[in-house]
User: Fold this.
Amino acid sequence: MPASMQGEMQPTVYRFRFGGFEIANVLDSKVIRDGLYPGFGGNQPAEAAQEVTRGNNIETDRYEHPFIPTLVNTGRQLVLFDTGNGALRREHERLRGRVPDGDLVARLVQAGYQAEDIDVVVITHGHPDHIGGLTEGGKPVFPRARYVFGATEFDYWRRGDNVREARKFNRELFMQICAPLADRSSFIKPGDEVVPGIRAVDAAGHSIGMMAYHIESEGKRLLVWADTCIHYVMSIQRPEWHVEVDDDKDKAVATRKRILDMVATDRLFVAGFHMPFPGLGHVERSASGYRWVPVSYQLNL
Ligand SMILES: [Zn+2]
Assistant:
């Protein structure tokens, strides 16, 4: 008898030591989406997009879109950056008769932690794939946690002024999920410290008040850049190209350029929520922009 096919088997947790900290990138889930172009590079001709995708051996029409929260254990506090899609996506998939592939809490268990162990949940910005896992059935998923939001971001969604049409439903979700957590939340601004070794960096543009987070321990430095760059080719090789899901497109371009320059110049490690799993790497300068260099063994030394 020939051996049977076993199906896909791919890692969902990547845990490593980082100075005195321990960090785990945990795959909440991933989806295949249509339209890498014009979702990325909508302000460019189709040929320009095709040239870039062909040059990188990827398709122009379809792409894989992962969701990767980052968990940092500082030795004193357990800090989770973003919560994935949570029940939102599981319901969405069930309604379509599909078995949902992801579950952050189950995968945190694989990483060695229970939901009750999380001390701080930091929300980089208020989009559904980052806040969806905060509550389930109206109850907090991380029962002991306090929450950290960027003050500008929280205020923007709470006020609900000038929310573009495509984000109206997002605003309802934010009010339903995040607004009730306000009394257990702190609201911070760029430069503020979350816990020793973790500091907020302005990354507004993709959303009105998005924040990245600089993590430093024993001289090692890493930037959790959230959705500064959403695709590892399109956003990094062509940072000036517009991205449909960026709420302020021009500001997002300026922020992308500033942060890419910073991580390339300072040789920071990057944890990217939508970079290919494990979502860790470096950025190098190239002739046309920058290049994503996925992690190799650097974090094992
Ligand atoms: Zn996102």
The first strand starts at residue 13 and ends at 18. The CA atoms of residues 229 and 235 lie 5 Å apart. The radius of gyration is 19 Å. The pocket of zinc ion is lined by residues 127, 129-130, 227, 273-274 (CB under 6 Å).
